[in-house]
User: Fold this.
Amino acid sequence: MMTTTVLTYLALLVAGSYLCLYRLARGPTAPDRTVAIDILGINLVGFCALLSIWTGEDFYLGVALAWALLSFLGTLALAKYLEGKEFDE
Assistant:
């Protein structure tokens, strides 16, 4: 039962990732592409969490936490760049 549930959620994450890749390729503006990249990072964190549940290994949760932090910092940096500010402001 748990395997079926995890595989269903993995399939939903894959479908969401494809939609984000479409928005990344077609997004008319840079902020649209930024949001798509951020959501792809969230999907990757979800993949890691589901793999942790499925395998029983806690290593994947550490990877998910590190990816979430790096994704957040990358989004902040890109937002500052798109706004035209320097990194030290």
Observations:
- The mean pLDDT is 89.
- DSSP finds three helices and no strands in the chain.
- Residues 71 and 82 are 16 Å apart (CA to CA).
- The first helix runs from residue 2 to 26.
